Every structure is written in C-alpha cells, then in structure tokens.
Description:
The structure holds two protein chains of two kinds. Chain A is mainly beta.
Amino acid sequence: xxxxxxxxxxxxxxxxxxxxxxxxxxxxxxxxxxxxxxxxxxxxxxxxxxxxxxxxxxxxxxxxxxxxxxxxxxxxxxxxxxxxxxxxxxxxxxxxxxxxxxxxxxxxxxxxxx
Amino acid sequence: xxxxxxxxxxxxxxxxxxxxxxxxxxxxxxxxxxxxxxxxxxxxxxxxxxxxxxxxxxxxxxxxxxxxxxxxxxxxxxxxxxxxxxxxxxxxxxxxxxxxxxxxxxxxxxxxx
Lengths: 114, 113
C-alpha cells in the first residue's frame, strides 16, 4: 500500500514534443505529491509538487495533473528540450507518523533528441 | 549541493568490510534521511532521524547502521551484513514536520570489489 508505481521506465521524445510520465498510488493517506529531476551523478532536485485539493498545477513548461478518484498523477513537460534529458521521479508523502518521509516511484529516464 | 556535503563521491569496499558514508549539512535542518538508489527501483529509505540522538529504521535498514550525535551530521555505515551494497547512496534533509524543502546531497557511489 505504500508503493508508488511509475511509468514508463524510459521515454524518448523529439525536441519540442510533449513528455508525459504517469504515477499511481494506493495509499489514500498520501497528501503531498512532488516530482524530482535528477541529472547523472547528482542528487534529485524538486521540480514541482501538488496537493490533492487541486487537479492541476503549472510552473512554466511543467504541469502536474492529479486525479484523486483514480489515485493517479502525471507530469507533462511541454516543448521538451535536450536539457530536460534526465531521470524523473514521482513521490508521495502522508501525514501522521510518516510525516517527512517520501515514497518514490521507480523513475523514468527521459531522453530528448535535438 | 544546497548545503549538504556527501563524501566520498566514490567508495570501494572489499567483501567483509564495513564502510562509513559521510553526510554533513549547514542548512540547520532537523531531519535527515538516507536513501539508496538502484536502477529501476527508485529511491528506498534506509534510515531517518528527526532529532539529535534519535533515529528510525526505514524500509531497507538491514545491514546498515547510523548515528546522530550532532544536528549537522548523519553518517551511514554499510556493514558486512549488507549482502548487496553496491548502489548510489543519497542523503537528504528537511525541517522537522514537513516534506517541503527536501534537499538532497550529490550522493556517494559505493562499489564492492
């Protein structure tokens, strides 16, 4: 129940295209859903995050779509650029005694071809 | 990165040896975490500490140990009991009681030789 399932495992997109990464969860106690971006040899960095009281959040070219009833959320990268090539992780966190702990998806390796 | 220093960047361990990975932060964050990253498995929580002199096991604590004697430091020891220690290890911090401002270090890549 603590799992977050992420797909696809890898994604190849042409420059200017839309990249879409999906995540699904089971634990209804999750109430915070961040996305992290990781470049090779570096630690992940927070990209964008959403709470379940909204269905969409947009920051620049990055948008999170959230479907509470389906327990799914996704990251959309518009106008994808070669510099977006990285590994992306979705994550989720619950309150209570689990507060502060993130459960991560398996990661998606995004390659944007010029 | 962002006030978190992990060292060394690369570490090689012989079979049967214990090794210690360092994590130091100057962000004045109370909470510190150790994650292990393996290809295709995401990040899995090993140990976390929300206050000095206190820490809890995460999802994959077997074969690892930690200490939290200072707010700034949270070293991770990979013991000989860890059967498959080759991985990328990440330290993270945040203020207690929040997942916001979760900051990761640059990681240590441990290889068993």
